[in-house]
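Box 3.1 A note on notation
Throughout this textbook, protein chains are presented in two layers. The first layer is the amino acid sequence; the second is a C-alpha cell string describing backbone geometry. Keep the layers aligned when reading.
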Amino acid sequence: MAHASCTDHHPKTISLSRRPFSWKVSGLLPPLADGTPNKGIAGPVVGVSRDFLLIGGGSNFPLSPPWEGGQKKYHRQVYVYQRAADSLQPVRLPVPAELPYQVAYPACCSTDMGLVVAGGENEQGPLSKVLLLNWDAQKKKLQVENLPDLPFALTSGMLTAVGNTLYYAGGNGASGTSDAFFKLNLDSLGTPNANWQALPPLPEKTAYGVLYGLDSLQQVFLVGGRKSVAGGPSELYANVYQFDINRHTWNKKAPLPFPLSAHSGVTFDAETLLVFSGDRGETFLRTEALLLQIAAATEPQKKAALIREKNKLQASHPGFVPAVLAYQVNRDSWSEIDTIPFPGQVTTTAVIWDDQVIIPCGEIRAAVRTANIITGTLK
C-alpha cells in the first residue's frame, strides 16, 4: 500500500501555541562540474526513496535574468542525499544520476513504491509523462519506471496520495489553467485498467497550489494557487476546498488568511495541514499589469519606459512571505504558527523525512534560485 510523504502523518501532534520548529540550512546543491557554485533550481523533482532524499531537474537562469536577455535552462540531473550527523550530505556517485528528460515544475509525491513525478515542462512545453523513481543504494543508480501518462500535458499541477491511490489536480496546459482532477490506483499497475480516471473537476481552475491527502478521513484538500487569465491579470486564491473521496463531492472550507500561490506544504499529523512560504502576488500582479500595458503600447518611447519600469520592479523583488501556516481540519481554522528565518522558498515541494520537514531549493526572488536545503525540526 502506498502513502505520500507529502501527506505523511507525524507521530507527534504539533503545538499551535508557539513556534514549533527549529530551522537551519542542512545542505546545499553540490557545485557544478567546473567547480562553480550551484545557482539553485526552481520547480525541482523532490522526494524520498528508500531513506534517501532525491532532488533533481528544475530550471534556472544560469547567465542572467530574463529582463537582461537571460534564457531559462531546464535540467535533468538528480542529486542524492543521505543524513550525516545533523546535516544532509550528497552521495558521491560514479556516474551522475539523470532523469530521462529535462523537466521543471512537475507534481511530486513520495510513496512506498517510490517517488512519483507527474507532468511538468521543458523547452518543448508542458509534459504528460509520469515517472516512478527509486534509488538503488547498492548500485548507486537511479531506477526509473514509466507510469501511465496523464490524459494531457500539464505543468505546475498538484499531486498527493491517499492509501494506494494517486490524485492529480490542475496545472497549466495548452488551453490555459486546468480544473482537471484524476486518480490512478497503484494496485492496478500492470493490468489493462492501469490508467488515470477522471473525477469531479476542481471547483476552480488551479495551478501552483498544494494538494493534501488525509488517509484517516478519506479526504483530499486543495489549498490556494492561481489561475492564468487570457488578456488579463492572474487570479490568486485564498480558497480551500475539501474533496470527499467516498461521496465524490467538493466542499468549500475556511480560506487562507491571504491569497497565496507557489507555496509548499505537508500533512503533518492526522488533522493538521501545514503551508510554507508562498507568493502573495503583489509584485507578480504588478508585473503582469505592466506586461499588458507594454503589449498594448504603440508609441516606442512609452513602450521602452514601461519595459524599464517592469525590469526595475522585477530586479527589486522583495522576496516571498516566510510564514508557516497551519490548518486544523477538526476546527476548520487557520493560524500562523511560525516564521522561517530564511528567504521564503517557492515553486518547490516540501517533504517530511522521519521527524523533519525539508524544503529544498526553489525561487527566492524573481528569477533568483537558491541552492539551500532547509530543514525544520520539531522542538
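Confidence is low (pLDDT under 50) at residues 1-5, 7-11. Residues 5-280+320-378 form a domain with the Neuraminidase fold (CATH 2.120.10.80).
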